[in-house]
Amino acid sequence: MLYIVFNGRWNAHNKYVDHEIKLLMVHKDIKFLDLVDKIHNLLNLNRNLVSINILFDVNMGTSKGMKIESDMDLEAYLIENNTKEDLRNCPLIVEVIEKNQTMALSRTTSIAATTSASNATSRKKTAASSSAYSGTNSTSSRASCMATEGGQEVQSPLTVLPSMGIEDLRVNHMFKNKEELKSALSRIAIKKHFQYKVKRSCSLTFWAKCIDENCEWYLRARSSKTSSYFRVIKYKNFHSCSLNHKSTDNRQASAKVISDCIKEKIRSVNPLPNKEDWNTPDEIKEDRIKPPEFKVKPGRPKKRRGEGIGDYAKRGRRKDSSIE
């Protein structure tokens, strides 16, 4: 059994803190390349876009530990691991490195862009040239992320997603802007019958927590000064709140969310070839009041605003139509 820590940061004393934990079962004779494959699968990483550094924390506080790069290194670690009664005293630290950057800027999946800028600065002779290079590098990284737009690879560490049709979120999911992220999160909250509140929201950050202050569920996303894209950097998808906080009367069922649902339905069935396939007025009314995929009954003002926004966005105004 291996104690894997990831998605954290190094503090000033060379201690790896604020990390997440997973356990990995391995054979005692496992080889280094097999371990790399297992860690990629465990953390849902795409090997075409990222590589990993595996470190053994020796708890000396003088460095980041011993890097494991071969079968011999791994064998030495396993021998040390077998002597420990508590697995927490012998963790394996996994750092993620993005392959699409021109320089190998090593960082964990939760370290901010400040770390990347610092590493780039150390490779330049002057502060001015270093700053320019760092900006160019950041822009090329963002452009590479944008190139994945429309892709639905769940395991991709950096995936740009639409707000519609998402079953759940993961760390490193990206959205075009904050509104797309909020729309996707609202739809997930409605489907799973929970409610959240926004703790902080600005042009660079978005932080949401469960409506119950004692619940462990939370989400954090971040953008950069050079892009409107928002990336999920922290996401604890676990609710420890009471069932009393879960109901069908959901505050996230706003007029904007309802209108998006209606637009999708109109777009998916229009035009219809046969008159017999058209929905009857009663079916349309029931479908709009209570969309079957959500089972949420919004208030009348929200419902009316949502219907109006959805119809106008797809069909335009009735008086402008040439066919009555």
Automatic annotation (TrEMBL):
Annotated region described as Disordered, given as residue ranges: 115-140, 272-324
Chain ranges of the Transposase MuDR plant domain: 169-231
SUPFAM superfamilies per the UniProt record, alphabetical: CAD & PB1 domains
Domain of life of the source: Eukaryota
Biased segments, Basic and acidic residues type: 274-296, 306-324
Pfam family, one: DBD_Tnp_Mut
InterPro entries xrefs: Transposase_MuDR
Protein name in the entry: Transposase MuDR plant domain-containing protein
